[in-house]
Specification:
alpha+beta, 109 residues
């Protein structure tokens, strides 16, 4: 899935870590947010309202689950563990290594 960054600000927050007009690969979906690698190389969540979908094709390896209120969670198997991104941002070596391996694989294609 690929999206174009179309709106720099949302609900008073300025998203200066993305470039207006750039197309980004979506790494996952968490409720109404998209996980995207920022221009600084960090996999942050961003409101989907900031983007226009340019390719809606979702990777076949995504695992999708729904919460009690039908909120959607979709990630590839490697990144789908509960607390994975908390571990990544806490610089836990295992999570950092898994993410780097995943990113290297998807950006080769």
């Amino acid at each position: 899935m690929r999206v174009r960054f179309a709106k720099k600000e949302h609900e008073g927050v300025n998203y200066s870590d993305l470039t207006l007009g750039n197309v980004y690969r979506v790494l996952g979906i968490v409720v109404d947010s998209l996980r995207i690698i920022s221009d600084e190389g960090r996999p942050y969540l961003y409101p989907q309202e900031l983007f226009v979908v340019v390719d809606p094709t979702e990777p076949e390896d995504w695992i999708t689950s729904y919460g009690s209120e039908q909120e959607r969670y979709s990630y590839p198997r490697e990144l789908d563990a509960t607390g994975f991104f908390e571990d990544y941002f806490d610089d836990r070596p295992e999570a950092v290594a898994v993410f780097r391996g995943y990113a290297a694989r998807i950006f080769r294609t």
